[in-house]
Amino acid sequence: MQPPESNTVHAAGDAHEPLRGGFTSTRFVLVEPSHPGNVGAAARALKTMGFSRLVLVAPRVPQVQLDPEAIAMASGADDVLAAAHIVPTLADALIGTQWSLALTARMREYGPPPGAPRQAVQDACRQVAHGDIALVFGNERTGLSNEDVERCSALAHIPANPAYSSLNLAQAVQVLAYELRVAYLDGEGAGLALPAAGDGAAGGAGASGTPLATSDDIERMYVHLENALIALDFLDPANPKKLMSRLRRLFARSGLEREEVNIVRGIAKHILMLKGKGGAK
Full-prediction pTM beyond 0.90? Predict the structure, then answer.
């Protein structure tokens, strides 16, 4: 369903602009979206800015791509909506990503330190040269859980009017998609983000030239490390407090390379072997 022409503002540029570089390496992840209309509007927001990869984590309406309200709000971005990938958990949505940005409307005690969208997308430009990245948005009512925030590499907050800071989910997607589009085009002029000076070569290399760790590599490291700390009696699983949350925040600031993750897992493996627990996979 196409809204009246007077209600539609068309983005400037070539209607057949090719999608490449950062545009095809960036996932927009909606965690447990409640309203089909917001999903459709988010698909429209992505297409107007040249993006196409929409991932839905456990949407309230299971077949939301077929929902009439979602299709109506997509308003011509039916292809982005239809191609949306549905997964059960955020961990599944982040598989294979090198870096992820969580969008939140409130400050968190733990998790990466927050930045404004314009600052955050500069980091995205540097990271997308290494592989896939993801922008993660929470549920319309409750936002992202602390666990979801801690799973991401960085955190951003849209500095809206403090007297009325409520942003619709699709509006938040539009803000970040616009900022990211501008940053990608400024980075090279053809939609390909370039690594910053001092970064390693593109294709997954960090500052030292070794490959960056993916999100799933890092999550396996946390499981391995947690098991080792429990074996040492340093972490009490019945009363864990915030130890793993603090460790996640520490590692999130470092931009872990694959070799560094392997070192931490090697240490954990030897601790478990010495404690007779075996090496976690």
Answer: no
